[in-house]
Fold each of these.
Amino acid sequence: MNTNLDVIAVQGLSKSFDGKRAVDGFSLNVKRGRIFGFLGPNGSGKTTTIRMLCGLLTPDEGQGTCLGYDIRSETAMIKRHVGYMTQHFSLYEDLSIRENLDFIARVYGVKDRQTAVERSLKRLGLSNRSNQLAGTLSGGWKQRLALAACLLHEPQLLLLDEPTAGVDPKARRDFWEQIHDLAAHGITVLVSTHYMDEAERCHELAYIAYGKLLIQGTAREVVEQSHLTTWSVEGEDLTALAAELKNRSGVDMVVHFGITLHVSGGNAQALQQAIAHYREDARWHWSPAEPGLEDVFIKMMDQARDNFR
Amino acid sequence: MIGKYFSWVRFWAVLSKEFIQMRRDRLTFAMMVGIPLIQLILFGFAINTDPKNLPAAVLSADNSEFSRSFVRGMENSGYFRVVREITTEAQAERMLAVGEVQFVVTIPEDFSRKLQRGERPVLLVEADATDPAATSNAIAALFNLNQTVLNRDLQGSLGHLQNTPPPFELRIHRRYNAEVVTQYNIVPGLMGVILTMTMVMMTALAVTRERERGTMENLLATPVRPVEVMIGKILPYIIVGYIQVTLILLAAKLFFEVPMLGSLVLLSLVLILFMAANLSVGFTFSTIARNQMQAMQMTFFFFLPSLLLSGFMFPFRGMPGWAQALGEAFPLTHFLRIVRGILLKGNGVTEITPNLWPIGLFLLVAAIIALNRYRETLD
Ligand SMILES: Nc1ncnc2c1ncn2[C@@H]1O[C@H](COP(=O)(O)OP(=O)(O)O)[C@@H](O)[C@H]1O
Ligand SMILES: [Mg+2]
């Protein structure tokens, strides 16, 4: 593998199911050792894209490489060097934890298999439960087991599809610690998620909706590119205010954040005008706020809906 | 060790995983042992029908008007179709063993002379009675014939011979199953039927289950190759198949006292081929079926015609021509002939070869289709 090349370099990937485009002209470059966050609403094409990257789906159009191997013709090599964690638990529920790891280690031809499995069990903290059936594990433990399984063959690229969905915060934190640790050792990670706090933990982000890549960059870049202005409001009867603001031109988005309301718009001036009247009202206290990723993504999605539907 | 196209390590991984899963799946395992037992009980009694036009050979040493009339009479009864005139005992023996004919009629040298002298000569009819249902009516018809067939020839001075007792004696040798026990035919056949059903169903389910549970995605994302998955999944069921066969043979011996004349080693070798053929069908189904329900339906789609057209339910020769032609396509049809041949007739390799290669051909075609249909992607 040429280390100068991007670990993932794909251009114009498209995939349709029954005439419906699940992924449309998707291009992406990811450098070695980066944690790349992949965001988008349900059904936006994240899983389909990841499957195309690891050779599980053949793209209708487009080409590219993963770890330097062609995603069309060299899928066998990609499979050997990529660790893919599926969105839904896909290890064998009727095999024990150890048997699952052992199976995976064998099919990848892991050297010194026994030791590798033992080490993995130990790191998981599951050594004393290794004979328990995988199906009896809780969601968080299943996720840890799945991650351990796809790390057994020491892949250079990890593709993780919503690995923390339905996992408690402590387990999520541990998970992200491990991801950063792996990245520090030069492993590239592409992870899809719904959680904004997780998005902020990534080096770089991409947002996809209706199969199209809408925006890409670091969290800061993404916020800047969105040209979003946000005001934060505190005060009485915010729900009524929100309902009123939503209908005003210049206001693109009104979102509740605990006891504050975030009011955002793509055009700073138009937004100022829209809220000027309310700023004079003593019931509310207005202050400029930094737009969050969530604000940006919600706006992206609204725009995407207008553009592609 | 890790090859591009086939790796023992990966193959072994799949194989041992399948074994563990099979061991854990108690219900399926119980079913695989239970099905043979239930079917043995259900099919313990036979289904009789009335097949006609059964192939027969005539070994005649007496070229007289009388013997020709007898043969014509046989054919006119509708039950017999003389396919060959033969000249030696050895030929007769071989044709019966291979199953080319169901009957051999031997007309002795001095038939007409003895007949004219009123000495009641003996006509020997050898019948392949492995399937008693197929021969019993034909034999009954022969006895009828005995009374009347020569009446036209016995005119004038021989007129007195027209009256009873019949002018000649019919001696029937029921070969291979002298006591006419239907179970002798049913029980070995049941082996083929049970194997067809369980082998096809088990593999069809084994792969579909992976897809339904979502484990297929993970399996496909690993470097395992289709051949490794296929053989790894098929092999455990061959072993299950042998367990079933052992059960059936034990029941055949202990409860039904079925004779076992031929080589059980030869039978075991044929079994590998037969099971592999059925397992490939199951594997093909599993590449088409979207869920386990569909896999089951496809299994029955294959199993029912096998059962009906193979000669298990109805004597093969009793079926109309098109049904026979269709029946020839199923491995079960050929396996039935082989297993009956080996157990009841003591057939060896040469006798079973004509039925062996069709199974081999079927396996080849099914395996190619299965491997071609198995996708390494989720497309
Ligand atoms: N195998 C498939 N067959 C048909 N449609 C599919 C298939 N996989 C995905 N889709 C459709 O493609 C779109 C994108 O799905 P997916 O990639 O799973 O999105 P995400 O992972 O972002 O939720 C959805 O509309 C989904 O219904
Ligand atoms: Mg998904």
Note: Chain A touches chain B at residues 51, 54-58, 75-76, 79-80, 82, 84, 86, 88-95, 99, 103-104, 106-109 (CB under 8 Å).
Amino acid sequence: MTRTGELAIDVCGLRKVYRGRREVVAVAELDLQVERGEVFGLLGPNGAGKTTTVEICEGLVEPTAGDVRILGRRWSDDPRAIRQRIGVSLQETRPDARYGQLSGGQRQRLAVATALAGRPELLFLDEPTTGLDPQSRRSLWEVVRSFRAAGGTVLLTTHYMDEAAVLCDRLMIVDHGRQIALGTPRELIASLGAGHVVELEAAGLAGRVDLGRVAGTEGVVECELVGDRLVATVERPHRVVPDLLRIVEATGLPLDGLATRHTSLEDVFVHLTGRHLRDGQEAS
Amino acid sequence: MRARVLREVGAMALRDYLRTPDAVFWTYGFPLIMALVLGLAFGERGAQPSRVAVVAGAEVLHAQLEPVAGDAVQIEIDTAERAQRRLVLGSIDAVLSGSLDAPVVTIDPSRPDAELAELRLESALRRARGELADAVQPRIESVDEPGGRYIDFLLPGLIGINLMGAGIYGVGYNVVQMRVKNLLRRIWVTPVGRVEFLVAFLSSRLLLALLPPFVILAFGMLAFGVPVAPGAWAAIAVLVLAGAAAFSGFGLLLASRARTLETLSGLMNVVMLPMWLCGGAFFSNDRFPAVLQPLVRALPLTWLTDGLRSAMLGATDVLAAWPATALLLAFAAATTTLAGRLFRWA
Ligand SMILES: Nc1ncnc2c1ncn2[C@@H]1O[C@H](COP(=O)(O)OP(=O)(O)O)[C@@H](O)[C@H]1O
Ligand SMILES: [Mg+2]
């Protein structure tokens, strides 16, 4: 039996290399500690190694290296004892499975329901809401929340940052099989040092705007040009927007759009990797 | 009609064909194998002697015929009852009884060799009587009463084929299908153990396989009056059970590692085709040359069909069916154990 306070999942030095015609490093190096009673999210783009990590924790995939303890036990000790205490919903691979008459939402809810069937202490959900309509996603979030409220622990993967932000107590952002950030959603967003993003758009802006001047503006923490869109991370938008407007005005171009929003996990990911979280997702 | 379209679509169809090993096998491999095997079984019969059993009590006839028989007719003595059964099973071509002056030749007219055997016997009888004696036309009897017809021979074979299909296809195909559709992984993540799963799956498939043989049997009895010896039911039941177990185990073995249905279908062709042809289901294995006998006798389907056939013809009570039953059960145990070791969820 595990003592209270013991970790639900304790993974150290995890590495997984698929050897085939071409060697694929699915997980390069990963430590993962999930406390009992929390909803922990693995957030990352496709191919980041989320499924591999989760399936190693589920005992479906042998790690190349690393120590894995689930509810205090290793898979080599007593697999059945672990299976009796966990619930698993696998990543949906084929939409045309046997229960193909069900809609995506029904299918996912059924998968999660079967995962919950054995009254598990620890629940693994691999992309539980991918491809679902907003309503089905929300009802699944409710299931996760009530499971947690009853004392359950959840490890889930997602590539939706809004889902990660509202559902997870703690998050690990992974990319190329490595941790690139870890913390509560609030901590991760706060790590950017500013709470808002201002976007200004004008046709032809890319060639004309003086990015150095934008960066030098008081209150701008970070700025970049995405096409003809100027994106600035700022502390207090009401103070900075007038200055930014003046800079754009100076180019003589008519302003096509102005938007401000709170910084999101997406911005955290872009900040850390220089890429967007969902880049290439459509392709796979 | 644009030439380029015709060319490209034609080339695509051709490539598609060549990339489908199954299609290539069924168009080239299968007919050639059929021709080879059936050729071995039914080919050079002219060159082979007709096998004739002289019934016990007509030993005089045997002694008279022996010196003039030559290479074309091979004569032996057997009891009337056994000779009749061997004729039905196809291991002899004719039964001779009566005397030199009033010979009776029994044949099975539905068999391709019957006529040749009859002609050869007639000429041997003529030689035995001497060229000068009056020719005596033997009385020809045919075994077309229930028990001696092809349908009577075929029915146990169909039951064997059915059990083979139920096991190899019913278990094998379903297991691989579950693996392909990720269903096995879903079971893997539950507390259900591997052995528990395999035992439960095999048992339920085994139960499903037990009914059809009796439906086939009942149909044969009702529609064609196929006789089943009164004491044979216990032996038939035991053989059906053992056969179902043997082929279910075999199916599981084939499916234990296969990751795609294509792989499985290749494996199934390799094991099922020889049994279709050489399992004694459609024609007697005695037709194969002596060198091939150890091979065709080693096929589980041969054990099953031969066992069922003897049982139905009344040659077998439960005890007499035990060698076939034991072989099938041993085969079931071996394949199931091996399958359990090799089995992979994913
Ligand atoms: N069975 C496998 N064989 C070879 N490569 C694999 C296998 N499973 C996953 N990969 C590769 O490992 C990498 C990580 O995959 P995965 O863990 O599925 O990522 P994610 O779930 O984050 O999308 C990918 O490059 C993927 O192609
Ligand atoms: Mg995945």
Note: The pocket of magnesium ion (ligand 2) is lined by residues A 50-51, 91, 126-127 (CB under 6 Å).
